[in-house]
């Protein structure tokens, strides 16, 4: 992934590298998550990116409500717009199972389509609680997170994985840190020294 | 004798990890998760074979028969839901030659222990001062959580007392008003009675 020195502020405390990045938000408070996710979404829309939200614990109505409360101006709903909310289950487990290779394989073509449609980048954030539901393949989550760091291309793309610290155990949260180059804790972006290079993380995850 | 630190053996990335290990403390909601997280995070320090984190109640990894904390006979206390020991408390497992124990100690209490089983490489000793700093941070954070919970509890009790007092006050004021009302009524009735008596 691109890790250029140039960076851009995204409203909450800290900066993300311009280009592509993969970060995790570990939170223990919904208001905290809403504040950070709304800043992340709002910045993506402002920059003309294709922004997607994958919901699991929250309903699309709730998400739109707190985004409005946080002052995010959302474009009109409808297919093909710059902002969409879809169920995490549909996005991550479209056939009732989680297949990381298929997910990763579909990314570059999707970015290509977004580029052709005139977007300046792609940005997504996902509620990760779906991984606690015992869906076949969900044990490959950490391998998938490590693989995400290998997705290249010249189209800027970023992903923010949101982990609820009230639901995931402490050991899993540590392993989550090992596969994200950046983490956000209490609104602060931390360049994550626990991050392992993809090959190392993948060998640990398998 | 002053402890000698060989800075050349210290890996800056590991120091970064020890420093960053503090960040998640703010979002881990309970002691069980804190113990799980630090047990995992500390196990990646060079020279560490495994790390057990004891926070009184939560003990991660859980003790097996051969790992029972026999030495920990110090009277513990639970404050704000957090197990604490007196400040001079020590972990009984610290006597083993392949173990290094760091107490999570503030000036007033001990909140638990990082119990490292070390390997033969000798790499661990270089990180010991930094791990002590981390342990101090974790202890202070636990103390802060404990105080916050005690304050919240005291606040809740105060609010309850205040509510009871308000109820009582309402009741007394209501009774006073009723007495005034009844007194007025008696006076009025006496007045009527006097008039009727005078008319006969």
Structure description:
The complex is a heterodimer of chains A (206) and B (200). Chain A has one domain: Rossmann fold. By secondary structure, chain A is of the alpha/beta class. The two termini of chain A are 22 Å apart. In chain A, strand 8 and strand 9 form a beta hairpin. The longest helix of chain A has 17 residues. Chain B has 200 residues and is of the alpha+beta class. Helix content of chain B is 48%, strand content 16%. A four-stranded antiparallel sheet of chain B has the order 2-1-6-5. In chain B, strands 3-4 form a two-stranded antiparallel ribbon. Chain B is rod-shaped. Chain B starts with 11 loop residues before the first helix and ends with a helix. The mean pLDDT of chain B is 85. Chains A and B meet through helix 7 of A and helix 1 and helix 2 of B.
Keywords:
heterodimer; A: alpha/beta; Rossmann fold; seven-stranded mixed beta sheet; two-stranded antiparallel ribbon; B: alpha+beta; 3 helices
Characterize this entry briefly.
The complex is a heterodimer of chains A (206) and B (200). Chain A is built from 8 helices and 9 strands. Chain A is α/β, with parallel strands linked by helices.
CATH class of chain A: Alpha Beta
Mean pLDDT, all residues of chain B: 85
- Taking the alpha carbons of the first and last residues of chain A, their distance comes to 22 Å
General form of chain B? rod-shaped
Averaging pLDDT over every residue of chain A, what do you get? 86
Oligomer: heterodimer
SSE topology:
The complex is a heterodimer of chains A (206) and B (200).
Chain A: E1 7-9, E2 15-17, E3 21-27, H1 30-46, E4 50-55, H2 60-69, E5 83-87, H3 88-92, H4 100-105, H5 107-116, E6 122-127, H6 141-148, E7 157-164, H7 170-177, E8 182-185, E9 188-191, H8 198-205
Parallel strand pairs in A: 3-7, 3-8, 4-5, 4-6, 6-7
Antiparallel strand pairs in A: 1-2, 8-9
Chain B: H1 12-20, H2 31-42, E1 48-54, E2 59-60, E3 77-79, E4 82-84, E5 99-105, E6 110-118, H3 124-199
């Amino acid at each position: 992934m691109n890790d250029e020195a140039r960076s851009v502020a995204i409203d909450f405390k800290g900066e993300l590298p311009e280009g592509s990045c993969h970060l995790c938000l570990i939170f223990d408070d919904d208001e905290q998550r809403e504040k950070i996710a709304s800043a992340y979404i709002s910045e993506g829309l402002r920059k003309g990116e294709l922004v997607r939200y994958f919901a699991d614990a929250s309903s699309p109505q709730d998400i739109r409500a707190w985004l409005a409360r946080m002052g995010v101006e959302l474009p009109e709903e409808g297919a093909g717009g710059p902002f969409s909310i879809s169920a995490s289950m549909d996005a991550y487990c479209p056939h009732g199972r989680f297949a990381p290779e298929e997910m990763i394989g579909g990314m570059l073509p999707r970015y290509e389509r977004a580029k052709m449609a005139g977007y300046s980048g792609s940005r997504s954030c996902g509620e990760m609680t779906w991984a606690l539901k015992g869906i076949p393949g969900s044990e490959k989550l950490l391998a998938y997170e490590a693989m995400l760091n290998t997705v290249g291309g010249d189209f800027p793309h970023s992903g923010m994985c949101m982990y609820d610290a009230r639901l995931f155990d402490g050991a899993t949260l540590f392993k989550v840190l090992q596969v994200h180059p950046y983490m956000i804790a209490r609104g602060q972006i931390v360049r994550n020294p626990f991050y392992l290079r993809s090959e190392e993380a993948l060998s640990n995850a398998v | 004798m002053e402890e000698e630190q060989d800075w050349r053996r210290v890996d800056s990335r590991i120091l970064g990890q020890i420093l960053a290990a503090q960040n998640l403390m703010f979002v881990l909601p309970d002691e069980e998760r804190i113990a799980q997280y630090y047990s995992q995070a500390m196990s990646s320090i060079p020279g560490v074979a495994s790390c057990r984190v004891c926070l009184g109640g939560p003990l991660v990894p859980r003790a097996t028969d051969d790992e029972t904390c026999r030495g920990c006979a110090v009277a513990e206390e639970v404050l704000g839901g957090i197990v604490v020991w007196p400040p001079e408390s020590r972990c009984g497992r610290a006597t083993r030659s392949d173990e290094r124990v760091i107490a999570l100690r503030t000036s007033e209490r001990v909140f638990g222990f990082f119990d490292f089983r070390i390997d033969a490489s000798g790499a661990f000793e270089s990180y010991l001062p930094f791990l002590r700093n981390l342990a101090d941070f974790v202890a202070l954070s636990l103390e802060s959580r404990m105080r916050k919970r005690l304050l919240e509890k005291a606040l809740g009790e105060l609010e309850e007392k205040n509510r009871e007092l308000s109820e009582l006050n309402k009741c007394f004021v209501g009774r006073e008003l009723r007495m005034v009302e009844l007194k007025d009524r008696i006076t009025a009735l006496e007045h009527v009675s006097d008039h009727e008596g005078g008319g006969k």
